[in-house]
What we know:
The complex is a heterodimer. Chain A is mainly beta. Chain A has no helices and nine strands. In chain A, the strands form two sheets. In chain A, strands 1, 3, 4, 7, 8 and 9 form a six-stranded mixed β-sheet that branches. Chain A has a three-stranded antiparallel β-sheet with strand order 2-6-5, with no helix packed on it. Chain B is mainly beta. Chain B is globular.
Amino acid sequence: QSALTQPRSVSGSPGQSVTISCTGTRSDIGGFNYVSWYQQHPGKAPKLMIYDVTKRPSGVPDRFSGSKSGNTAALTISGLQAEDEADYYCCSYAGRYTYVFGSGTKVTVL
Amino acid sequence: EVQLVQSGAEVKKPGESLKISCKGSGYSFTNYWIVWVRQMPGKGLEWMGIIHPGDSDIRYSPSFQGQVTISADKSISTAYLQWSRLRASDTAVYYCARQNWYDYNYAFDIWGQGTMVTVSS
């Protein structure tokens, strides 16, 4: 089980949109519609932002959206805000109650 | 309030054993899987394994199989992660999290605060 591949960093100005990609294989992202995304601020525990590829838990702003095509999932943050500056991790179900996380992406708000 | 509360930070020497805990409250602990996640200093999240406290069904990541032991005591709503012989490379923050099948399918909605484990001679 290798980590899913994410860009090390992305950046954008307030109000802009940024997209984080997450590339896996047919055994994980490509095989299941169970990709989730987590936001982690420094020194804090991760927070669930997206589940089932596109769904947002209650309380997560609608500027966060998810998508998937083939073996690649993506998280888009529209209308970037200062508080969105954090690390973001994708995670995919990989069958038989196993999971794999992405390598993580640092989002910087310029 | 639904929460997972983890045991406190640990400082150990190489070769020592350790067991850290994750106590659930505010929900039916036996009905949800608990996962363990490692985060080494300055690094990303790594999925270690998962346990169903109701029947102690356990799955390990191949990377951690044989390196750690996951267990649970449903009578006290607590999951555990343990090492028999720690190494310096085990230095990390360890998180437990709840997999909420009922609301979020294969996603982790509640996280513990993390336990920092430092292994140094």
